[in-house]
Target: ADP-heptose:LPS heptosyltransferase
Amino acid sequence: MREPYREILVVDLLGGIGDLVMLLPVVHGLARANPGGSLRVLAHEPGAALLRGDPAVTRVLTPRHGGAGAAREAVAEALAARRPDLAVTSTRYDGIPDLLAASGARCVTDLWRRPPPDEPVGERYLRILLAEGLLRPEDVEVRPAVRLTPAEIAYGESALARRVPAGTPTGTARPPVVLVTDAGMDVKRWPAGRWRELAALLARRGHPLLTPGAPSGRGAVDAASGAEVAVLPRCGLRGLAACFAAVARRGGVVVGGDTGPLRLAAAAGAATVGLFGPTWAGRYGIGSRDDLQGLPGCPHRRPAAITEQPCWWTACCPLSPAGPACMADIPVASVMRAVTRLCAGSPARHPAGDG
Model:
């Protein structure tokens, strides 16, 4: 049995909130495997906020600026401040793997190597670290979890109660449904008309509807749906996770595309319905039967190299001038069936973020 590593550095500078959420089991697994060790995580804002207050993390580091070379500079500063015994990174650009290797630490610098098309990214990370002897077999089964404080949990309950009063008689209340309509990238957006149709159907069935606040208002479910949609407060990622945890306690469901907030909802314990188009659900899905894949047979999809797909950066679909054909291929009826099944099967859930 090896001695625990005393100084661990985890680097995730991919930039996406969802990327960091997928790495949380790595952070928690390394902390469990090395009790008493110091574990620092270097990540971009705003995702770095998810690690502040996490008992597994000793210190959260962030780049000093957003300009060219900032990521490499941040890694160099972290190494100069304290040399790690173990360094793990999901980040491959800017010479960061070589920089870590030159520190003399035990390094795992390619968590993306040789990925099977149907192995979820987060599980791939864990299996590589298991093969390296850095995690235990039981760690591979762990799902992402945001660890919330009691005060944050209370905040989420209060924020939800103000928008969805719990005054409906017991036994007749429908669980709330959160619609995450913004997706960050146009190529991942479900058509606005589908969102309006879904909102109208859910409202007719008596589900309270909510949506995260968005500064731009892009993709919002508007009055054309005829449904009343409450807006969750703009409260930072930990506050949003707390709101999702409160939704989970009421047996609610979060619906959204392949985006950070949907992964955050799952990590907070909420049931989710994921809408996947350009990204392959078998690799990037949340990991439930309710990850819905649009246009499974698309000849242009590359599960292990999504950024090389012709539609990725421009959302110009080779199969449809109207927009991503894969997203348009997901019918409202399928989403409704998934929401109904989850609400019926889980009257209340215990959020994973309770510690």
